[in-house]
Amino acid sequence: MTPVLPLDNGSMATVKYRMRKPFIAANWKMHKTIPEALAFLSAFLPLVKDVTDVTIVLAPPFTALARVSEEVRGSNVRIAAQDLFFEEKGAFTGEISPVMLADVGCSYVIVGHSERRQYFFETDDVVNKKTRAAQKFGLGAIFCIGESLAEREEGKTFEVIHREIERGLDGVAPRGLVVAYEPIWAIGTGRTASPQQAQDAHAFIREKLRGFYGNEAERLCILYGGSVTPENIDSLMEKPDVDGALVGGASLKPEQFASIVTFGRKK
Ligand code: 13P
Question: Which residue among 122, 151, 164, 182 is the active-site one?
């Protein structure tokens, strides 16, 4: 998995062999008006235009999706929504369906983010319905899981991950699926999981995915989320089961997010 290769200068470097294309997504949460989103794009797109070896995804708020989607058309950037409702259409005031998200140009949708679970009372059952609905209408689901600080301190990290996967992925196919491990104690706190803590959780998640999908699990990206920055992305991405990142705060600034997308290169 991690061969040691000779460099041009004669020294040796450990290079992680990747069987999965890295996937780096920006979750803007409830930030950016349309003009702010457009200003971001005009700085960001030129910075990443030559990046072909990373899947780059932006998840703006609903109100900016249509405009952002228009603006990135033909580029190497894909669009995600931050949430969806699981019905196709109907009397569900205020909700947005997967069909509408596909219509507006989304390739992906984030489901089960801990902020949805915590502030909007989304249960594993609701997250499961949303994940299935996303797939049914051709959207890739970025399926989020992760434990709280209390759960980690009580030694329940793997128990929580196990439950969220068992219930959340019931009946979900591997097609388009991306899993994001976001320990709640690391979100917006500046307290990143150590690369080894991330790897341990990701290896456990991969094993669960093997149980669901057999060998297909090797092709699925598992992202880490929680205080990812340009400074810590390289050490996280060196771990064998860390295939990318779901970035909140540091994705709001074009230079910072571009620096995360271009991880591993000398800046
Ligand atoms: P921060 O990067 O701000 O910690 O947010 C992580 C997150 O919740 C991404 O979905």
Answer: 182
